[in-house]
Amino acid sequence: DVQMTQSPSYLAASPGESVSISCKASKSISNNLAWYQEKPGKANKLLIHSGSTLQSGTPSRFSGSGSGTDFTLTIRSLESEDFAVYYCQQYNEYPPTFGAGTKLELK
Amino acid sequence: QVTLKESGPGILQPSHTLSLTCSFSGFSLSTYGMGVSWIRQPSGKGLEWLASIWWNGNTYNNPSLKSRLTVSKDTSNNQAFLKVTSVDTADTATYYCAHTRYNSGEYFDYWGQGVMVTVSS
Fold it and tell me: What is the DSSP string of A56-107?
């Protein structure tokens, strides 16, 4: 299976700041990477697919970059609703696998 | 608008079979390219893809669970099902169903809110 390593596991920031989350694959996955947001009491939300393509409805302050094995989710000008857990997921090969998650907390 | 909702027993005993239902709207599992996947998350741990079923009846299971998984669908009633045999405490988790599309790669563009399952004697 392709192992997905996310870092950091925890990240504290303030509204208005910019943050980046890293996701590294154990082998090349081309650009077959998605990012999700998890919030309590809500369904997980697909933010980005194909490494950098914003899903419809995802605010433009979110961006994704990378290909091959190294990927980054960047959130610019954090807003209060962005404090959540973020997961990356590869879908280049079966089985699809997820990173362990990054919890973005309010500083 | 795509929505999905999982339902299940809540609690069951070790060695029993877990049966989960995903009721959905906004798409049909008889339409080309549509799929439903099952994903689980033990408390405090990461997400694990379990299985997928596609519009054409094809299914794919996570090899880590070997032959314990069975996925099926009822197209007329817009439902998908997951059975997990011989459960033990390691199967305690929140189970999600999610919508996926064949042509775009297996990422999950809509999720249910999940159903918590506890395996305990």
Answer: TT--TTEEEEEETTEEEEEE-S--GGG-SEEEEEE-SSSSPEE---EEEEE-
Distance CA B62, CA B50 (A): 5
Distance (Å, rounded) from C-alpha B50 to C-alpha B68? 10
**Closest Cα of chain B to A39: distance in Å?**
10
- To the nearest whole angstrom, how far is the Cα of B71 from the nearest Cα of chain A? 15
β-sheet bridge partners, residue B22 = B6, B80
Cβ pair B105:A50 closer than 8 A: yes
Q: Per-residue pLDDT tens, chain A, 107 aa: give them.
A: 999 999 999 999 999 999 999 999 999 999 999 999 999 999 999 999 999 999 999 999 999 999 999 999 999 999 999 999 999 999 999 999 999 999 999 99
A44 and B111 within 8 Å at the Cβ level: the answer is yes
Look up residue A84 and give its DSSP letter.
S
Q: Which two tokens stand for residue B60?
A: 């794919």
3-class SS of residue A83: coil
Residue B56 identity (one-letter amino acid): N
